Amino acid sequence: MKQDGMKTLLLTCLLICSYATTFAQKPKTGTYTYAIAFAEWDGKSLGASCTVIIKGDSIRVFRTGTGDVTSKEAEMLDSGIIMKHKSGKWIIGHTPKDKYAKEIGGCSDGPSEINFKKKIFWLC
Known about the structure:
Number of domains: 1
Radius of gyration: 17 Å
Strand content: 25-35%
């Protein structure tokens, strides 16, 4: 009977940790610097970075002057609402339907993907 109790306790702890990790990943309101990962270059950043501004659930992403990116400095790369995609990845959505988009990030036509834990914004 002790083993069953330990298994239940362990499973409960794992579920709580998983839940906390999932929702703790979204940063607080503020301004951050993220690397830009290029899907067409297997996620390499090529030294490119961006400024991410978060206010509650709203997000704006601007290009900074670093790295090899075709956009101009301070150009807005994306803006929208922070939401969790059905895949479990964070995205910059524009409508509630974006949570269920077939494709996200990189070179897709879907919403942009952003990784808060690794501080990476994905582009094509």
